[in-house]
Write a structure and sequence with these properties.
With 613 residues, this protein is mostly helical. It has helices spanning 5-20, 36-52, 66-71, 80-95, 122-125, 130-150, 157-184, 195-204, 211-232, 285-297, 301-306, 311-335, 359-375, 380-396, 410-413, 438-452, 456-475, 506-524, 531-552, 561-580, 585-612; strands spanning 111-113, 185-190, 238-240, 249-254, 349-350, 357-358, 417-421, 431-435. It has a three-stranded antiparallel sheet with strand order 1-8-7. A hairpin with a 6-residue loop joins β5 (349-350) and β6 (357-358). α9 runs antiparallel to α12 and α19 runs parallel beside α21. The protein is globular, with a radius of gyration of 28 Å.
Length: 613
């Protein structure tokens, strides 16, 4: 199916309105309030498109489009919907605040016990997790932007008071999430001869060099990043090991939660107590990607244009940006290490600290590389090789291929990849985190890469791949009942996979909403300029301009007004074609060909008239 973001988003909104506004007021569902991550994802399914896409805006009721209102008719009128969103957001802030301790970022039921016979303790369920910190940044920025626009017009006094209280709670939650993300970042140093060092060297050694040569090359490639970390280590960067020992290798990124012995972050904001860290200071690829996505929203055009960050938040954002840039540079170099085949092209990827191997981790490294390609100017070679990786991951996950009986790819979709949360065992049973959103993440990165590509061949391959992934995901919509037309009915594509606790997944649904929002930005870009088409359009316009000038030399009778009208139309088409020839050479070609056809008709008609006389 073709990607039609507007139509797809309207269908999703209609399904969410049916599920979340059954009697006209917002309902969280049976598991509402039990996980700050799930509740944030639930809200973002509406709020993210409403604040990122002008055609879906809800913060200016008079500008809300009719099709958006039809999709959300279960929620009420154009004046009702913003008020109900403010009420739902206020309920979220209240539900996920731990009294005087400040905002709560509990993973809740998204946490699992590694041993199914052991139950996690309430203290473990209440632990903060990077997914919640990152989602809270995105949700808080969307909320602040929504309120800023909504408050431009006078409202009822009770609504204004609720909006002011929500703004204060949102700003507090945003600051707390930023502080927590700073405390989740870690740099882990290790010896090249250690198990982790050997695994890293084997991973990047695609040219079968000696271990010593690989270590020396790694040290040389990573030296600028090490110097940057050393320069800013006083800004609270958690370093495990002797950073001054250049014989040690290192990894950097985000652990699953606040790391052990992470010092409190100095801040003037009243965010409550900063909890003691539990997570082992070992970077996780999955949580690193999640953190990078949330941090990127702090520097979006919308955040900067609306001035959503106060002075203290700007200071924290700069500290996060430093970690964001260091991490992208590190993993981009690791992914593209060496002169020949990229380590990323050697699928699947094996993680360092957790010693796990999966296509999901290859996708995580590719996601960081895609973000880094946005940051720097990507070459055609970078794009071509990354496109091939995306195509192989889709094939291996049986998204673009047929699923076979007892296919090992089923595990990637259900139950998903399970990450052991190292350090959680200090509070009870060892915990784990499940990721079953592989196709949604692959679609998101494919669309992002498609937005970046200005090569027609790569762009078309990526667009075809994105359409195939969307076919797979669309088949997984829940057919009926609660959550109908939302996600995730994984058994539609993996009938032999184990049963799921609940069919409705806000994680998958929210990821697909992000994909459609990104696809909207993709189509808003100007089309890729073809040098061949530009050359052809220029030649056609040259001929058309010359023939038009020649036609204007011909005598015209006073009665022949139709010829004058046609020549005026031709002149306007020529002018339009010359204006767009650089940006849209294909359209310019079409206009020029039409002009040539009309001019030839005039010539033929004049000759026929002369013979008749």
């Amino acid at each position: 199916m073709r990607i039609q973001p507007r139509q797809h988003l309207l269908e999703i909104w209609q399904a969410i309105a049916r599920h979340s506004f059954p009697d006209g007021s917002w309902q969280w569902g049976e598991r509402g309030g039990a996980s700050s991550v799930a509740d944030a994802e639930h809200l973002l399914c509406l709020l993210y498109p409403a604040t990122e896409i002008p055609a879906f805006r809800l913060d200016a009721p008079n500008e809300t489009t009719d099709d958006a209102l039809r999709a959300l008719r279960k929620a009420g009128t154009r004046e009702d919907i913003p008020c109900k969103l403010i009420t739902a957001l206020t309920e979220f802030m209240d539900a996920h605040t731990a009294g005087d301790s400040g905002p709560s970022f509990a993973g809740g039921y998204y946490f699992d016990s590694q041993d199914p016979n052991e139950e996690l303790t309430p203290e473990q369920r209440a632990l903060g997790v990077v997914d919640s910190y990152s989602m809270s940044i995105t949700l808080a920025l969307a909320t602040l932007g929504f309120l800023k626009v909504y408050a431009r017009e006078p409202r009822r006094k009770d609504v204004e008071e609720m909006a002011l209280e929500l703004e204060a709670a949102t700003r507090k939650r945003l600051t707390a999430a930023m502080v927590s993300l700073l405390r989740c970042f870690t740099v882990n140093l290790f010896d090249a001869e250690s198990e982790q060092g050997v695994a890293l060297c084997d991973r990047v050694n695609q040219e079968h060099l000696s271990r010593r040569s690989v270590v020396q090359q790694l040290q040389r490639e990573l030296k600028p990043i090490r110097a940057a970390i050393r320069e800013y280590v006083d800004l609270g960067i958690n370093v495990v090991g002797d950073l001054g020992n250049e014989n040690l290798l290192f990894e950097c990124g985000w652990s699953w939660g606040v790391v052990q012995d992470a010092p409190p972050i100095d801040t003037t904001a009243p965010i409550g107590a900063q909890p003691k860290g539990v997570a082992r200071p070992s970077p996780y690829l999955y949580f690193t990607v999640v953190a990078l996505d949330g941090i990127a929203d702090l520097f979006s055009n919308r955040t900067l244009t609306l001035g959503l960050l106060n002075t203290e938040q700007q200071r924290l954002a700069e500290a996060l940006r430093l970690r964001w840039e260091i991490t992208q540079q590190y993993w981009s170099k690791i992914a593209r290490f060496g002169e020949g085949r990229w380590p990323l092209e050697d699928v699947p990827w094996q993680t360092g600290g957790q010693y796990l191997e999966s296509d999901y981790f290859s996708l995580s490294v590719a996601a960081i590389l895609v973000q880094d390609l946005f940051r720097r100017r990507a070459t055609d070679d970078d794009l071509t090789r990354t496109v091939a990786v995306m195509e192989e991951l889709a094939s291996r996950a049986k998204i673009t291929r047929r699923m076979t009986r007892d296919d090992p790819a089923v595990e990637l979709h259900n139950p998903g990849i399970r990450l052991p949360l190292l350090g959680s065992e200090s509070l009870g049973p060892a915990m784990q985190w499940s990721m079953s959103d592989f196709p949604a993440q692959l679609l998101k990165r494919t669309i992002q890469l498609c937005s970046l590509s200005r090569n027609i061949g790569s762009h078309d391959r990526l667009l075809r791949l994105a359409e195939q992934i969307l076919d797979h995901l669309w088949e997984r919509r829940i057919p009926s009942g609660a959550g109908a037309k939302l996600w995730d009915n994984v058994h539609a594509v993996c009938p032999d996979s184990p049963p799921t606790a609940s069919p409705l997944s806000w994680t998958i649904t929210e990821r697909i909403v992000e994909c459609m929002t990104a696809a909207t930005g993709l189509y808003r870009q100007p089309p890729i300029r073809s040098a061949e088409l530009n050359s052809m359009a220029t030649a056609l316009l040259s001929e058309a301009g010359h023939l038009f000038g020649n036609e204007m030399l011909e005598a015209a009778s006073c009665e022949d007004t139709s010829r004058e009208i046609r020549l005026k139309t031709v002149e306007l088409q020529l002018r339009r074609a010359r204006q767009i020839v650089d940006d849209r050479p294909g359209t310019a070609c079409a206009l020029a060909l039409d002009v040539l056809g009309q001019l030839d008709e005039l010539v033929v008609a004049r000759r026929a008239g002369s013979r008749g006389v």
